[in-house]
Design a protein that fits this description.
Blueprint (H helix, E strand, L loop, with lengths): L18 H7 L7 E6 L2 E6 L4 H5 L12 H13 L3 H4 L2
Antiparallel strand pairs: 1-2
């Protein structure tokens, strides 16, 4: 991890992103950043251009060894099948 760099908050509550961070994250003029506060830390993340591509494959270990086609078929059938509890008066 690189040495932390101090930045100063302006009178308008603005900060400049240090060049080291801009270069490592490829942040360009006009880019948008996500701002988050977690456990007392201010976190700035580049906004992904394509959220679907960014989230693709997330938690793939959950689906490892599972037949996803069969799982989806079973779930869809549950949506359209009448439930026993609804049939009883």
């Amino acid at each position: 991890m690189a040495q932390p760099v101090a930045v100063k908050v302006s009178s308008r509550y603005q900060i400049a992103v240090p060049s080291m961070a801009r270069e490592r994250l490829n942040i360009q003029k006009g880019d948008r950043l996500l701002v988050d506060v977690q456990d007392g830390l201010l976190i700035l993340l580049p906004c992904p251009e394509d959220y679907a591509a960014r989230l693709a494959g997330l938690h793939r270990e959950v689906w490892a060894g599972l037949d996803t086609t069969a799982y989806l078929r079973q779930e869809r059938e549950a949506w359209t099948s009448p439930q026993d509890s609804l049939d009883t008066p």
